[in-house]
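To illustrate the input format used throughout this study, we show a single complete record. The first block contains the structure-token representation of the backbone; no residue identities are included at this stage. The design step must infer an amino acid for every position from geometry alone.
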């Protein structure tokens, strides 16, 4: 059964919002629309539970239960243990805290591998560890395609490498990297892996347990939820790294790497993302009895199948144009629907003109300066980025392609 777009779009209040009527949203990589389930939970928490949680009185007890529910249900979808999932203010902040922990554990002369395909959030904090005497090695993309070749990683691995940091997919290149293959290479060399899933997770929550990385990070505001960073930290590594939280939280895995107090309401609202997954599963598999991980995988596959259809149309329209360069592969089956275009000119006026045609998008470097420069793009000028998700309709794709023909 293909994804029922009418049902999907009915779950998002933005599509019924009069002020957004006629506007096609193509900057989802910067943040998705929030589903109604998240909005309802956030509203309920602020109106009924806005007290210090985990006390005995009803409002406090219920608030704590809703926060716990978010962790329980989202960890199950991700295929990991409940206490291996933590919430922080953002993925950037979570990564920074992790870098401090590794910096305390590692010795001068030991090495970390980063890529130049990454968003700066999953490369900058690690690169700064060079100030502590830690060697930072760069796994470089192919200058023509933006591809990260696992064979090139093998050349960088030796027994001094402690961590390999890479994206599930880049926010400008879009190609989906093989997390399992890369993690296997790193583990064989005795290294851990840290995967930035921010640009992948909006296209279907992954089964992190099956993929195998030691750390997996993504942002809820890009997966139809509130502004929180979700971090999977597998137990073996989490218990090895030094505690970064309050000393009295050191024995609780999901608190060890969140030194800031949790945003109670936003953590609780993340359960709405699980509600959304369950709603899609129940609608498309009405007699289904799958466990949360299986339900998440079914919904993931429904989302990806829909996106491949829509992305194929976009790529067919763009790949042979001589007035732009598509960054990354043009095969929709191997990339996410985040499409960066090098126009050879300032993309901001183009984005502004597209807005006059009802196309909401943007231009710039998108914190991926290293990737753009590696591929010969002037990062100061940047790219036009067209990003969408499973809820983007055929009519919106039509609107985009028509507007691009007119504007370009």
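Output of the design step:
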């Amino acid at each position: 059964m293909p994804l029922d777009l009418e049902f999907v779009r009915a779950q998002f209040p933005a599509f019924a919002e009069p002020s957004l009527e006629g506007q096609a949203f193509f900057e989802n990589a910067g943040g998705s629309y929030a589903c109604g389930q998240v909005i309802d939970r956030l509203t309920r928490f602020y109106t009924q539970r806005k007290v210090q949680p985990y006390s005995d009185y009803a409002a406090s007890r219920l608030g704590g239960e809703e926060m716990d529910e978010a962790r329980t249900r989202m960890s199950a979808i991700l295929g990991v243990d409940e206490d291996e999932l933590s919430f922080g203010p953002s993925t950037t902040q979570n990564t920074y805290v992790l870098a401090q922990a590794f910096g305390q554990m590692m010795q001068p002369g030991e090495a970390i591998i980063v890529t130049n395909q990454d968003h700066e959030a999953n490369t900058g904090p690690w690169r700064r560890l060079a100030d502590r005497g830690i060697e930072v090695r760069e796994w470089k993309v192919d200058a023509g395609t933006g591809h990260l070749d696992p064979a090139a990683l093998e050349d960088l691995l030796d027994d001094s490498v402690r961590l390999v940091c890479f994206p599930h997919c880049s926010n400008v290149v879009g190609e989906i990297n093989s997390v399992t293959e890369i993690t296997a290479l790193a583990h064989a060399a005795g290294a851990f892996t840290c995967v930035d899933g921010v640009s992948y997770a909006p296209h279907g929550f992954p089964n992190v347990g099956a993929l195998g990385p030691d750390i997996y990070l993504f942002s809820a505001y890009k997966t139809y939820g509130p502004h929180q960073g979700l971090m999977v930290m597998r137990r073996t590594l989490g218990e090895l790294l030094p505690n970064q939280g309050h000393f009295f939280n050191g024995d609780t895995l999901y608190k060890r790497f969140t030194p800031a107090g949790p945003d109670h309401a936003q953590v609780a609202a993340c359960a709405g993302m699980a509600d959304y997954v369950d709603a899609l599963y129940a609608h498309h598999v009405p007699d289904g009895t799958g466990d949360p991980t299986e339900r998440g995988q079914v919904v993931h596959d429904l989302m990806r199948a829909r996106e491949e259809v829509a992305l194929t149309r976009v790529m067919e329209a763009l790949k042979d144009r001589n007035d732009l360069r598509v960054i990354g592969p043009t095969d929709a089956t191997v990339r996410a629907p985040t499409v960066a275009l090098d126009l050879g000119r300032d993309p901001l006026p183009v984005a502004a003109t597209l807005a006059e045609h009802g196309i909401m998008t943007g231009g710039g470097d998108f914190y991926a300066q290293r990737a753009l420069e590696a591929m010969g793009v002037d990062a100061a000028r940047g790219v036009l980025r067209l990003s969408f998700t499973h809820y983007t309709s055929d009519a919106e794709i039509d609107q985009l392609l028509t507007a691009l023909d007119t504007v370009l």
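Structural context for interpreting the output: Residues 292-318 form the longest helix (27 residues). The first strand starts at residue 24 and ends at 25.
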